Protein backbone atom coordinates (compact mmCIF):
# COMPACT_ATOMS: atom_id res chain seq x y z
CA UNK A 1 0.00 0.00 0.00
CA UNK A 2 1.28 3.49 -0.84
CA UNK A 3 -0.17 6.79 0.34
CA UNK A 4 1.14 8.29 -2.92
CA UNK A 5 -1.06 5.96 -5.00
CA UNK A 6 -4.06 8.24 -5.49
CA UNK A 7 -6.61 5.43 -5.50
CA UNK A 8 -5.31 4.09 -2.20
CA UNK A 9 -4.91 7.57 -0.75
CA UNK A 10 -8.37 8.80 -1.64
CA UNK A 11 -10.23 5.70 -0.50
CA UNK A 12 -8.75 5.62 3.00
CA UNK A 13 -8.82 8.32 5.70
CA UNK A 14 -5.60 7.10 7.38
CA UNK A 15 -3.76 7.44 4.08
CA UNK A 16 -5.18 10.90 3.51
CA UNK A 17 -4.06 12.05 6.98
CA UNK A 18 -0.51 10.81 6.38
CA UNK A 19 -0.45 12.38 2.90
CA UNK A 20 -1.69 15.63 4.45
CA UNK A 21 1.06 15.56 7.06
CA UNK A 22 3.61 14.93 4.33
CA UNK A 23 2.28 17.96 2.48
CA UNK A 24 2.48 20.06 5.66
CA UNK A 25 6.10 19.00 6.21
CA UNK A 26 6.93 20.68 2.91
CA UNK A 27 5.59 24.01 4.17
CA UNK A 28 8.38 24.58 6.69
CA UNK A 29 10.99 23.51 4.17
CA UNK A 30 9.71 26.02 1.61
CA UNK A 31 9.39 28.89 4.11
CA UNK A 32 12.83 28.22 5.59
CA UNK A 33 14.47 28.01 2.15
CA UNK A 34 13.13 31.44 1.32
CA UNK A 35 14.79 32.95 4.42
CA UNK A 36 17.97 30.95 3.85
CA UNK A 37 18.32 32.34 0.32
CA UNK A 38 17.92 35.90 1.57
CA UNK A 39 20.68 35.40 4.17
CA UNK A 40 23.05 33.35 2.00
CA UNK A 41 22.86 30.51 4.52
CA UNK A 42 21.56 26.93 4.36
CA UNK A 43 18.34 25.97 6.17
CA UNK A 44 20.24 23.89 8.73
CA UNK A 45 22.58 26.81 9.48
CA UNK A 46 19.56 28.98 10.23
CA UNK A 47 17.97 26.23 12.34
CA UNK A 48 21.18 25.93 14.36
CA UNK A 49 21.30 29.68 14.98
CA UNK A 50 17.67 29.77 16.12
CA UNK A 51 18.16 26.72 18.35
CA UNK A 52 21.25 28.23 20.02
CA UNK A 53 19.40 31.49 20.63
CA UNK A 54 16.73 29.80 22.75
CA UNK A 55 18.48 26.91 24.51
CA UNK A 56 20.94 26.71 27.37
CA UNK A 57 24.66 26.48 26.67
CA UNK A 58 24.89 22.80 27.65
CA UNK A 59 22.53 22.03 24.74
CA UNK A 60 24.67 23.80 22.15
CA UNK A 61 27.39 21.20 21.69
CA UNK A 62 27.96 19.49 18.33
CA UNK A 63 26.79 16.14 19.79
CA UNK A 64 23.57 17.61 21.13
CA UNK A 65 22.82 19.48 17.90
CA UNK A 66 23.46 16.31 15.87
CA UNK A 67 20.83 14.47 17.92
CA UNK A 68 18.44 17.42 17.86
CA UNK A 69 18.45 17.66 14.07
CA UNK A 70 18.94 13.95 13.34
CA UNK A 71 22.18 14.65 11.50
CA UNK A 72 25.72 13.33 11.83
CA UNK A 73 28.31 15.15 13.93
CA UNK A 74 30.51 15.90 10.83
CA UNK A 75 27.50 17.56 9.12
CA UNK A 76 26.87 19.76 12.16
CA UNK A 77 30.60 20.51 12.53
CA UNK A 78 30.72 21.68 8.89
CA UNK A 79 27.70 23.94 9.39
CA UNK A 80 29.23 25.33 12.61
CA UNK A 81 32.53 25.98 10.82
CA UNK A 82 30.79 28.11 8.21
CA UNK A 83 28.77 29.98 10.84
CA UNK A 84 32.02 30.75 12.65
CA UNK A 85 33.69 31.94 9.43
CA UNK A 86 30.73 34.25 8.86
CA UNK A 87 31.18 35.51 12.44
CA UNK A 88 27.66 34.52 13.43
CA UNK A 89 28.74 32.30 16.35
CA UNK A 90 31.58 31.93 18.84
CA UNK A 91 32.88 28.68 20.27
CA UNK A 92 33.61 28.31 24.00
CA UNK A 93 35.97 25.46 24.82
CA UNK A 94 35.14 23.21 27.77
CA UNK A 95 37.88 23.63 30.44
CA UNK A 96 37.77 19.92 31.30
CA UNK A 97 37.86 18.70 27.67
CA UNK A 98 39.61 20.84 25.06
CA UNK A 99 37.96 18.88 22.18
CA UNK A 100 34.50 19.81 23.35
CA UNK A 101 32.90 23.24 23.05
CA UNK A 102 29.59 25.05 23.36
CA UNK A 103 28.35 27.60 20.83
CA UNK A 104 26.97 31.08 21.42
CA UNK A 105 25.67 33.69 19.01
CA UNK A 106 27.59 36.85 18.19
CA UNK A 107 25.72 40.12 17.85
CA UNK A 108 25.50 39.56 14.08
CA UNK A 109 24.19 36.05 14.73
CA UNK A 110 21.47 37.51 16.97
CA UNK A 111 20.50 39.85 14.15
CA UNK A 112 20.23 36.98 11.66
CA UNK A 113 17.99 35.07 14.09
CA UNK A 114 15.79 38.14 14.49
CA UNK A 115 15.44 38.42 10.71
CA UNK A 116 14.75 34.73 10.04
CA UNK A 117 12.86 33.23 12.98
CA UNK A 118 9.58 34.62 11.67
CA UNK A 119 9.63 32.11 8.79
CA UNK A 120 6.77 30.34 10.59
CA UNK A 121 4.53 33.45 10.55
CA UNK A 122 2.22 32.41 7.66
CA UNK A 123 1.29 29.24 9.54
CA UNK A 124 1.03 31.03 12.88
CA UNK A 125 -1.42 33.54 11.44
CA UNK A 126 -3.64 30.68 10.26
CA UNK A 127 -3.50 28.91 13.63
CA UNK A 128 -4.40 32.17 15.42
CA UNK A 129 -7.63 32.34 13.41
CA UNK A 130 -8.67 28.80 14.41
CA UNK A 131 -11.40 28.28 17.05
CA UNK A 132 -10.03 27.60 20.55
CA UNK A 133 -11.71 24.17 20.83
CA UNK A 134 -10.29 23.10 17.48
CA UNK A 135 -6.84 24.33 18.50
CA UNK A 136 -6.95 22.19 21.62
CA UNK A 137 -7.87 19.07 19.66
CA UNK A 138 -5.11 19.86 17.16
CA UNK A 139 -2.59 20.32 19.96
CA UNK A 140 -3.60 17.08 21.71
CA UNK A 141 -3.17 15.17 18.46
CA UNK A 142 0.14 16.82 17.57
CA UNK A 143 1.67 16.29 21.03
CA UNK A 144 0.53 12.63 21.12
CA UNK A 145 1.93 12.03 17.64
CA UNK A 146 5.28 13.52 18.67
CA UNK A 147 5.45 11.23 21.69
CA UNK A 148 4.67 8.18 19.54
CA UNK A 149 7.29 9.19 16.96
CA UNK A 150 9.80 9.60 19.76
CA UNK A 151 8.94 6.15 21.18
CA UNK A 152 9.39 4.71 17.69
CA UNK A 153 12.85 6.42 17.68
CA UNK A 154 12.01 8.43 14.57
CA UNK A 155 12.36 11.74 16.43
CA UNK A 156 15.36 11.42 18.73
CA UNK A 157 15.42 14.32 21.18
CA UNK A 158 12.21 15.24 22.94
CA UNK A 159 12.18 17.66 25.84
CA UNK A 160 8.51 16.99 26.45
CA UNK A 161 6.64 16.64 29.75
CA UNK A 162 5.97 12.96 29.00
CA UNK A 163 9.73 12.23 29.06
CA UNK A 164 10.52 14.49 32.01
CA UNK A 165 11.46 13.41 35.53
CA UNK A 166 9.25 16.16 36.98
CA UNK A 167 6.12 14.83 35.27
CA UNK A 168 3.67 12.88 37.38
CA UNK A 169 0.09 11.65 37.19
CA UNK A 170 -2.14 11.29 40.23
CA UNK A 171 -5.73 10.06 39.97
CA UNK A 172 -5.63 10.74 36.22
CA UNK A 173 -4.45 14.34 36.70
CA UNK A 174 -1.10 15.40 35.23
CA UNK A 175 1.35 17.55 37.21
CA UNK A 176 4.72 19.24 36.85
CA UNK A 177 6.37 18.67 40.23
CA UNK A 178 9.10 21.24 39.54
CA UNK A 179 6.79 24.14 38.73
CA UNK A 180 4.10 22.80 41.10
CA UNK A 181 1.36 23.19 38.55
CA UNK A 182 -1.40 21.03 37.16
CA UNK A 183 -0.81 20.31 33.48
CA UNK A 184 -3.92 20.63 31.35
CA UNK A 185 -3.62 19.50 27.71
CA UNK A 186 -2.71 23.02 26.61
CA UNK A 187 0.06 23.19 29.26
CA UNK A 188 1.93 20.12 27.99
CA UNK A 189 5.26 21.27 26.53
CA UNK A 190 7.23 19.77 23.67
CA UNK A 191 10.35 21.83 24.36
CA UNK A 192 10.80 22.89 27.97
CA UNK A 193 13.79 24.82 29.32
CA UNK A 194 13.46 23.05 32.70
CA UNK A 195 13.17 19.58 31.17
CA UNK A 196 15.24 16.80 32.80
CA UNK A 197 15.31 13.32 31.30
CA UNK A 198 13.73 10.57 33.45
S1 LIG B 1 9.80 20.66 33.93
FE1 LIG B 1 8.94 21.22 31.94
S2 LIG B 1 8.93 19.33 30.75
FE2 LIG B 1 9.19 18.78 32.90
S3 LIG B 1 7.10 18.33 33.58
FE3 LIG B 1 7.58 20.44 34.12
S4 LIG B 1 6.77 21.64 32.39
FE4 LIG B 1 6.92 19.53 31.69
Automatic annotation (TrEMBL):
<dbReference type="InterPro" id="IPR000835">
    <property type="entry name" value="HTH_MarR-typ"/>
</dbReference>
<dbReference type="GO" id="GO:0003700">
    <property type="term" value="F:DNA-binding transcription factor activity"/>
</dbReference>
<dbReference type="InterPro" id="IPR039422">
    <property type="entry name" value="MarR/SlyA-like"/>
</dbReference>
<dbReference type="InterPro" id="IPR036390">
    <property type="entry name" value="WH_DNA-bd_sf"/>
</dbReference>
<dbReference type="InterPro" id="IPR036388">
    <property type="entry name" value="WH-like_DNA-bd_sf"/>
</dbReference>
<dbReference type="GO" id="GO:0006950">
    <property type="term" value="P:response to stress"/>
</dbReference>
<dbReference type="Pfam" id="PF12802">
    <property type="entry name" value="MarR_2"/>
</dbReference>
<feature type="domain" description="HTH marR-type">
    <location>
        <begin position="14"/>
        <end position="154"/>
    </location>
</feature>
<protein>
    <submittedName>
        <fullName>Transcriptional regulator</fullName>
    </submittedName>
</protein>
Amino acid sequence: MSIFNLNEQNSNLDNKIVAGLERLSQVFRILLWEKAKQQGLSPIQIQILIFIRYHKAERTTVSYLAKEFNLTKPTISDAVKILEQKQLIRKYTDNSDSRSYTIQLTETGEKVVFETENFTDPLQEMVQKTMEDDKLILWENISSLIVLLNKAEIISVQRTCYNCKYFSVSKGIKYCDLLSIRLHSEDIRIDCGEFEMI
